[in-house]
Amino acid sequence: MPVPGEHHPAFEEYCETIFELREDDLDVIQARIADRLRVSRPSVSEMIKRMSDESLIEVAGGKITLTVSGEELAVRVVRRHRIAERFITDILGLSWSLAHREAGRWEHVMSHEVETAMSRLLGEPTTCPHGNPIPGSGYEPPAAKKLSEISSGQEFTVSRIPEELEFTPGMLEFLELSHLVPGSHGTVQIGAEAGDMTVLIDGTSVTVDSFATARILVTI
């Protein structure tokens, strides 16, 4: 059962999804929520109505926005998810993909006391392992560009892997194995004008598809 004062995990998951779609500069519409959560559109429609009745969201012109209450719930869940990912990768030494799946469970059951203790143990991190900001951490994003905007021969540093890529099947495994992770330095060998890009990371050439290069954020 939900802890008193908190919401059912389904409400938490939907608020989190709306928050993350907005964070990735995507229009928050029912179809995108259905795609992200891999549920039917009728199921999303029913949940959106329930969330509206709970005053967690507002819907206007097909666009969905969080209310103040919905935003507070989303921030709490996203913060717990990203701290949990940090703990699973940094302390337990497990993979990105496993951390992402496990954090999706932990975010619904983690108490404030555990969240605070984890953050303290981790040294109060400002981002998750993928470079996405932890709400409430005071994170200030650098001036970043999409990898696809970097020209051949230019050097770059990976800054952030947006949530959209975290939900792309096999992408986290590919990026981690290829060392295309926040803080890694690379050089563009073949630019996006050719479609897929080829980059040099840690002395190894890696081909990255156009879907990923249009979303990975880097600094130069």
Verbal overview:
- The structure is a single chain.
- This protein is of the alpha+beta class and 220 residues long.
- The chain folds into two domains: 1-140, Arc Repressor Mutant, subunit A; 145-219, SH3 type barrels, CATH 2.30.30.90.
- It contains nine helices and eight strands.
- The strands form two sheets. A six-stranded antiparallel sheet has the order 3-8-4-5-6-7.
- Strand 5 (185-190) and strand 6 (197-201) form a beta hairpin.
- Helix 2 crosses helix 3.
- The radius of gyration is 18 Å and the shape is globular.
Could you list some keywords that capture this structure?
220 residues; alpha+beta; Arc Repressor Mutant, subunit A; SH3 type barrels; two-stranded antiparallel ribbon; 9 helices; globular; disordered N terminus
